[in-house]
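2024-03-11 09:14:02 INFO queue: dequeued item Sel1 repeat-containing protein, len=221
2024-03-11 09:14:02 INFO validating residues
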Amino acid sequence: MKILIVVLLAAIPMLMLAGCGEKDPGNTSKPGTPAKLPDEFTSEKEIPSILENELTPEEKSALLQEIMPAGPGNEATPEEKFVQLRKDAEAGDAKAQNGLGVMFYTGEAISKDSSGKILTNDPVTAAAWFHRSAAQGYADAQFNLGLMYANGEGVAKDPAKAVELFQKAAEQGNVDAQNNLGVMYYAGEGVPRDEAKAKEWFKKAAAQGNADAQANLDAMK
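2024-03-11 09:14:37 INFO prediction written
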């Protein structure tokens, strides 16, 4: 039987770096002899002349797209995105508060202890932001805070409080909260043991495609 699925709902997309593909310009140098490019300055939006003369217009266009993919030129940096997220969170935006909590929990947002030492993650600050968001009825934050109480991370362990928060999120359709609520009922943690209610919540989560809930249902048979 699976116990609590410890998953935080990430609200900040991961940044990905992609390398540019390279095209053989049709080098005719002898094998083993490196081709020497002429000294020239090429901006990030230009193609070196030695390549430009060898390419068709279509190939030039394709190569330029690899060198400088199309996109907004004023896209915010990760730091700017974090500053804006914190600004929105401090202004009371529940989604931003939950997202900020996730960043502090995972260590994406840097925190320091009282001595100035950098922390790898900060569950206490994370829980504080989840509290603010959950108090506004934001389901993802209720689920995340429920996990904190269930595992005793950033807050004192309190299975009953975890059940209360999972219940609120589950009733809003949060599939992971539904599965975890089923686990709490099955195990009798924070709530009297009740297999019928456990099965009820597992079925609701499984109906939404949750594989863990389906596995829990199968394990109960």
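2024-03-11 09:14:37 INFO annotate: The chain has a mean pLDDT of 77.
2024-03-11 09:14:38 INFO item closed
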